[in-house]
Design goal:
Blueprint: H1 6-14, H2 19-33, H3 48-63, E1 67-71, E2 76-81, H4 84-90, E3 96-102, E4 108-115, E5 128-131, H5 135-152
Antiparallel strand pairs: 1-2, 1-3, 3-4, 4-5
Helix pairs in contact: 1-2
């Protein structure tokens, strides 16, 4: 059974913690659940912080109705999928992935370049090391960064 990583994030955000203490509380909560089998998540070969960023990105893209393709640095290992589990299972098989988002018409909207073991507890968004230069990609990046900033008490 795969448990959504977002339950950790949502639990902290819903707890009503004052922003100035949220980062400390979130780090404590994540540390408590890091080795809990129920908190394990995909992508399989990514560390916990990378999983936070990867899951947040994939959930956002799917919420926006995107079809997702994954390039592992060598080849396109998944093309035009909207199956979150399939996407996450495909990710992190090498040290990097390019996540390509396509709209319902199949048009390329944005690419996001992920480097695994590049994130850290203070900034999981470091996993997403580059992205397309366009309004949609900027909005996705800024929204995810704001959520993590709030979660860690930086906002």
């Amino acid at each position: 059974m795969i448990l959504e990583i977002s339950w950790i994030v949502q639990k902290v955000l819903d707890s009503g913690i004052h922003e100035s203490t949220m980062g400390t509380r979130c780090n404590k909560h994540i540390t408590q659940h890091k080795d809990d089998p129920m908190a394990q998540q995909l992508p399989e070969h990514a560390n916990f912080e990378d999983r936070l960023a990867a899951n947040a990105l994939i959930r956002r893209l799917l919420k926006d109705g995107m079809q997702i393709s994954i390039n592992d640095g060598e080849e396109w290992v998944l093309k035009k999928s909207s199956d979150r589990l399939e996407i996450l299972k495909t990710m992190s098989q090498t040290g990097e992935d390019t996540v390509r988002a396509r709209n319902a018409d199949g048009e390329r909207v944005a690419d996001f370049y992920l480097i695994y073991h590049n994130g850290n507890k203070e900034d999981p968004m470091m996993t997403i090391s580059d992205y397309s230069c366009n309004k949609y990609a900027d909005n996705v990046w800024n929204d995810l960064e704001a959520k993590f900033d709030k979660m860690y008490g930086y906002a």
